[in-house]
Write a structure and sequence with these properties.
Layout: H1 5-17, H2 23-56, H3 63-107, H4 110-151, H5 175-181, H6 208-218, H7 225-252, H8 267-275
Helix pairs in contact: 1-2, 1-3, 2-3, 4-6, 4-7, 6-7, 7-8
Length: 276
């Protein structure tokens, strides 16, 4: 059998039941239902050969075993036929609904449609900006982590008499205060557990465009102090600049003031830090 045709039809059926579904979403659902039909037909074409294989194997099986195998094939064939009927009917019902939705859209005021589309576009922009804030905090952590690793690649002072453990510190430029005071959807972490930002599964969220040069430094066998300093400074300056831009973009969506759940640091402060 194909991979879970019932689940695919359930999704298409859910789209049909969703009274707010767009014509585009409904068309995709209809295509999914028809895709189930195509897959079922392909399986049905293989049924005669499967039956022939069972009969050829009868010499090494009992009649009872052969009968059970043939009955199983018949059950599968009957299930495919019924599922195909459901899929065809569902695709047709969705087609009717698509025509209804398109007719309703055509009768609407074009200005109202444009307003709704603009609202949806702005909401999508806000969601992307909100998601970018915690990603930048994780990038800040990765700059600190990779910066320390890069410093460990620098040569030790010459002299066998020198024996010590080198410890490097690369403070996060956004800092704990900024992390705690920033409030957007998806941030702060649940129960305000900021420690989770350091968990390994968060590292893939770091912006490679920002941390990439530092990561490449860590892959070298030896680097100069100046290289590490410049790479860290550039990464942190880029991070702060982008953080300020994201905050400014979020503010532009709320010209009359933030909702209660939003709190952002001062743009002026972030820009001053970036300039340094």
């Amino acid at each position: 059998m194909m991979n879970d045709p019932i689940a695919a039809l359930e999704q298409a059926h859910a789209a049909l039941q969703n009274r707010a579904a767009s014509a585009a979403a409904l068309k995709l659902a209809a295509e999914e239902a028809r895709g189930v039909v195509v897959a079922l037909d392909a399986e049905s074409e293989l049924a005669p050969e499967q039956e022939a294989q069972v009969l050829r194997a009868m010499t090494s099986r009992s009649i009872v075993e052969t009968l059970k195998a043939l009955e199983a094939l018949d059950d599968e064939s009957a299930s495919r036929a019924l599922t195909r009927k459901i899929a065809m009917h569902l695709a047709g019902a969705i087609d009717v609904r698509v025509r209804e939705v398109e007719a309703a859209e055509a009768a609407r005021d074009p200005a109202e449609v444009r307003r709704e589309q603009e609202h949806a576009r702005r909401e999508a922009q806000k969601e992307a900006l909100f998601a970018r804030v915690p990603a930048l905090f994780r990038t800040d952590f990765m700059i600190s982590k990779l910066g320390k690793a890069a410093w460990n690649c620098t040569p030790r002072p010459v002299g066998s008499h020198v024996s010590y453990i080198r410890e490097f510190s690369v403070p996060r430029v956004l800092g704990q205060n900024v992390m705690e005071s920033t409030r957007v959807p998806g941030w702060p972490p649940r129960h305000s557990d900021f420690a989770q930002i350091e968990q390994p599964n968060y590292m893939h969220d770091a912006d490679e465009g920002i941390v990439g040069p530092l990561r490449r430094l860590c892959e070298k066998s030896s680097v100069y102090d100046d290289e590490v300093t410049i790479a860290i400074d550039r990464a942190q300056a880029t991070l702060l600049k982008e953080f300020a831009q994201v905050c400014a973009a979020i503010r532009s969506h709320y010209p009359e003031g933030y909702p209660r759940f939003i709190a952002l640091p001062s743009i002026t402060t972030a820009r001053a830090l970036a300039a340094e």
